[in-house]
Design brief:
Shape: elongated
Structural class: alpha/beta
Distance between the termini: 55 Å
Strand content: 15-25%
Bound molecules: 6-O-phosphono-beta-D-fructofuranose
Largest sheet: 7 strands, mixed
Number of domains: 2
CATH topology of the largest domain: Rossmann fold
Number of helices: 12
Strand order of the largest sheet: 3-2-1-6-7-14-15
Order of helices and strands: EHEHEHEEHEHEHEHEHEEEHEHEEHH
Number of strands: 15
CATH architecture of the largest domain: 3-Layer(aba) Sandwich
Helix content: 25-40%
Length: 362
């Protein structure tokens, strides 16, 4: 087994709360227990592809006051576009720049790489590391919680807390104005955020991409609520839900990038039209990704960071740290890189929601 002296750590994909806590834990374990040098690569894969290389040497002094543990975002920066295998060039063409990444790793004289990413980043980084015979260990993070083989990814818990608090706030204004409030939440193609926060925040209706819904079902639930003497209702809808004709509403940003968004407004119009009740829409958006990490995210980040470094020390590459059955384990990256993990429509959370009378679809 090659001796480890220098490791790199990078954050990739959409940011979330708890990333800084992972970087802190990695640095503590690698510097403190093993005496390695730790290089924090800036802006995900870009720091290794750019010349000059872009990185920061990480030392324990930087984390002395523990401020980083509490800070949202990632102080290393991140990217969620610019796949090195199909890098977008200014003239609109795509260029394979994967060898720039591999070359950057060797120029930095790294012995291993810890990648903190979601399912998409994990897949791309694994391909890059395989190509360059780079020893990689993954740490799962994403508010979407759609990484396979782990019950929780860093960032999910904070996002669910944010959505739950938003529902607490919406409830009061919904009641005051006798309105149906629709809250559109992130999660891409999975309903993990919507179902957890919807149950915790007392929603009447939770719509998730994994379970088809109907306008009749929505109307039935709202009328039931009204019959019980309540003139307001809360609806949580995951951004990846489809309209009945099968399209997922999207927003196009300058430069042509598309992101999910708009299903909340669609439902609001439909509910107002079909039930005659007043509706309003809130799109929480990137508020879900920011803020101080929750206790659970700090805990996960800390345990994941320490275990990831221990795997490097043992030469156990091609692995991802994961949370299973109350503890940290590690799993094969091959088992993880198979696409996003959907919510189980027959699982505990959907069953619990229905048990509470919440409409989750038909
Ligand atoms: O994957 C995390 C996520 O926040 C999704 O929930 C959301 O659809 C997407 O990223 C938004 O991406 P961007 O930050 O590029 O707008």
């Amino acid at each position: 087994m090659a001796e480890i002296r220098r490791i790199g750590v990078l954050t990739s994909g959409g940011d979330c709360a708890g990333l800084n806590a992972v970087i802190r834990a990695v640095t503590h374990r690698a510097r403190g227990a093993y005496g390695w040098k730790v290089l924090g690569i800036l802006d995900g894969t870009m720091g290794l592809m750019d010349r000059p290389l872009r990185y920061l040497e990480l030392d324990l002094d930087m984390f002395a006051g523990h401020d980083i543990l509490r800070a949202g975002g990632t102080f290393l920066g991140t990217v969620n576009k610019g796949d090195p295998f199909a890098f977008p060039m200014p003239d609109g063409t795509k260029l394979d720049r994967s060898l720039d990444f591999v070359d950057g790793f060797h120029r930095m004289e790294l012995d291993a790489l810890i990648v903190v990413g979601g399912d998409g980043s994990m897949r791309i980084l694994k391909q890059l590391c395989d190509k360059g015979s780079i020893g990689m260990v993954g740490v799962p993070k994403t508010i979407d919680n759609d990484v396979h083989e782990t019950e929780y990814a860093v960032g999910f818990s904070t996002a669910v807390n944010v959505v739950t608090e938003a529902l607490d706030r919406l409830q009061a204004t919904a009641a005051s104005h006798h309105r149906v409030m629709i809250l559109e939440v992130m999660g891409r193609d999975a309903g993990h955020i919507a179902i957890s926060a919807g149950i915790a925040g007392g929603a009447d209706i939770i719509l998730i991409p994994e379970v088809p819904y109907s306008m009749e079902g929505i109307a039935r639930r709202i009328r039931e609520v009204q019959k019980q003497g309540r003139s307001h209702a809360l609806v949580v809808v995951a951004e990846g839900c489809r309209t009945p004709d099968g399209t997922v509403p999207c927003v196009e940003y300058a430069g042509g990038e598309k992101r999910y968004g708009g299903i909340g407004q669609y439902l609001s119009d439909k509910i107002a039209e079909e039930i005659g009740t007043e509706t309003r829409v809130t799109i929480l958006g990137h508020v879900q990704r920011g803020g101080i990490p929750s206790m659970r995210d700090r805990l996960l980040a800390s345990a994941f960071g320490v275990h990831a470094v221990d795997l490097v020390a043992q030469g156990k590459f091609g692995r991802m740290v994961a949370w299973q059955d109350r503890g940290v384990v590690d799993v094969s990256l091959d088992a993880v890189c198979i696409g996003p993990r959907s919510l189980n429509p027959d699982g505990t959370l959907v069953h619990s929601a229905r048990g509470l009378g919440i409409y989750v679809g038909d």
